[in-house]
Amino acid sequence: MGEKDHTQKMLIGCRDVFAELINVLVYSGEKVVNEADLLAGPTESLYIEADNQTHQQLRDCGMYELHNGEIHALYNLENQSIIDAHMPLRCAGYDGAAYRSQCNDRKNTYKTYPVFTFVLNWSTKPWNKATSILEALHFKPNPAAYPYFNNSKMPVFNMCFLSKDVREKFQGDLRIILDYLCDRESLLNRNQTMKHPEEVIRMLHALTGDDQYLNSIPLFTSPAKKGESTVCDLINSYYTKGVTEGHNTGLIEGRNSGLIEGRNQVIQALISNCKDLGCSFENTLDRIKNSLSLSDDEALEDMKLYW
Question: What global pTM score does this model have?
Answer without folding.
Answer: 0.75
